[in-house]
Structures are given as structure tokens and as C-alpha cells.
UniProtKB/TrEMBL annotation:
<dbReference type="Pfam" id="PF00126">
    <property type="entry name" value="HTH_1"/>
</dbReference>
<keyword id="KW-0804">Transcription</keyword>
<dbReference type="InterPro" id="IPR005119">
    <property type="entry name" value="LysR_subst-bd"/>
</dbReference>
<dbReference type="GO" id="GO:0006351">
    <property type="term" value="P:DNA-templated transcription"/>
</dbReference>
<dbReference type="GO" id="GO:0043565">
    <property type="term" value="F:sequence-specific DNA binding"/>
</dbReference>
<dbReference type="InterPro" id="IPR036388">
    <property type="entry name" value="WH-like_DNA-bd_sf"/>
</dbReference>
<keyword id="KW-0805">Transcription regulation</keyword>
<feature type="domain" description="HTH lysR-type">
    <location>
        <begin position="1"/>
        <end position="59"/>
    </location>
</feature>
<comment type="similarity">
    <text>Belongs to the LysR transcriptional regulatory family.</text>
</comment>
<dbReference type="InterPro" id="IPR058163">
    <property type="entry name" value="LysR-type_TF_proteobact-type"/>
</dbReference>
<dbReference type="GO" id="GO:0003700">
    <property type="term" value="F:DNA-binding transcription factor activity"/>
</dbReference>
<keyword id="KW-0238">DNA-binding</keyword>
<dbReference type="Pfam" id="PF03466">
    <property type="entry name" value="LysR_substrate"/>
</dbReference>
<protein>
    <submittedName>
        <fullName>Transcriptional regulator, LysR family</fullName>
    </submittedName>
</protein>
<dbReference type="InterPro" id="IPR000847">
    <property type="entry name" value="LysR_HTH_N"/>
</dbReference>
<dbReference type="InterPro" id="IPR036390">
    <property type="entry name" value="WH_DNA-bd_sf"/>
</dbReference>
Amino acid sequence: MRRWETYEAFIAVVECGSFTAAAERLRLSKSAISRSVSSLEARLGSQLLFRTTRRLAPTDLGRSVYRRCVELFDMLAEIDAEAMEHDASLRGKLRIVASDSFGECYIAPLAAEMMRLHEQLEIEFLVTDRTIDIVADGYDMAIRYNAQVDSSLKVQKLYELPHICAASPEYLLRAGTPFTLADLTRHNCLVSTFEACHAWRFGMGRTQKTPNLSGNWCSNNGPALLTAALNGIGIVWLPELYLRPYIKAGALIELLGEHRSDPMPVWAVYPARRQAAKVRAFIDYVKSRLPAAEGMTPEPHLAGIVRPPVLVA
């Protein structure tokens, strides 16, 4: 293994905390990672890691070598970024992890658009509700609702996501129209189990209210909640981006518009010690395209929705 590769393996082991995780990150075998680090220690004539059955940590010298290695690899990344920007093309793999259906419905299509513009770019796209350690797992960036990160990460706001309340005409004909927040407590509310959207927030700033709501349909998935609303099951509270095309088509009706809440920010999170040209380019592209994302959501007649019959009291 070449000298730079042994340093890269050492960095991965320190950041991931284990040979197994480092091997997964670099897509090598655990034995290859172990041999690489042992080779580096033999060449330097010093121990860089404490190894026990339960713990792996850098020695004092190991921490010093790690810091210097990070600085050197950051310089190499900057050289690559400058060269790529001069060439005006993007290449290599971009690993992205995105939260829930927002990533599936809006970020993934934009990533596909960007790949058409940069044929040498490779994208690996993970959608999950779990919080991924993007440094340990080797991701270049994450799209999250939560901006609370440690010092190893940076954040940049991508978008502000206003939420609105809506229901189908069939549901409102059957159950009546809520005109106040208190009215909502008497309705079937389609509840999200996703933490960022679980509590329905109404009003701005310090006057914001979160009524205690309940219903017989809950999901951690935006499209599943939207489907239930379109089928007349109850009232939904979702990002306006999801609902706007259906409201324009008359399949849903916005409710309690005067109680709209502060929009929820969506953040790009990436390692503080590296921001490759492709990461910067992707953030800029998403920020420029998200305001026009309305057209990405299928119209009701294309969504495979089974519309219930109108129930007359």
C-alpha cells in the first residue's frame, strides 16, 4: 500500500473509532486497514493507536500525526477543488444523506438533474429518518431539519419550509370545517411520527401554539400522510411544497391560513474540514432550484389516488 493510502487509512480509523467502520468507509477489508496502520507505525517507529478489545484511541503522538495528516489532506482537497473549478466540470463521487420524504421528493430529483449536467459526477443518495454520523460513515453532506451539530460540522441554510393545514372537500363536507385552533381538537388529524413534524405549530415567534391533536392515521412519511388526506381520511399539516399543487387543483383546501407558523429551515450539513467543489456546487444548485420545485410534485390525477365518494349527511 502506498504511503498516502496508509495515512488515509489511519485518518479513517481515528475518525470512525474502529477498524471495521474504517474498512466500510474506505470499502476495504478490515485486515487491509489493520495492515496499513501497522505498516505506518512500523515505518514511523512509534505506536499511534491504543488497542484493546473494547477501546481504540490515538496515542499522544497519534493525535499529533492525525492533526498534521488532516491538514495535508485538506490542502490536497483544496488543490483538487481549485483544479475542478478551473475546469468548470465536476467529477468523482458525492455521497449525500437526506431526511425523510423531503429528500426523496425534492433533493433526489435535483441530484439527478445535476448529474445530467455533470456526466463525470457519481452520486450515492441515502434517504433515512435516522441521524447519520456523516464523518464516521464517510458522507460528504447531509440534508437535515436540525442545525444543532458539533464542531466537526458546518451548516448552511438551503431553504425555509412553510407548513400549512389542509383537507379534502369530501372530508370537510362530512366532518365540517375548522375555523379556530380549538376546532382542530374535534377533528381527525393525520399525525406525523417524524420528530421535526410531530407537533403542529401555529402562529409566529413567541405566540406560537401547538394544540394537542389526535387521529386514527399516523405515519413517518409525508407522501403517506398526503395520500390519506387526499382520500378524505382527515386533516393534514405538511410543508406547503407538498400540498400546493393539490390545493391549486382543488383536491385539497387550505385551512386556518391566518394561523400560519414560522417556516422550518432545511440545512445542508457537511464536515468542517472539507468542502469539496462538488459539495459547494450541489448546495448552490439546490438553493437555486428549490423555489421552482412545485412542478416536481405529481398532480392528483397522476398520483394513483383513490378518491372516495362524496358522503352527504
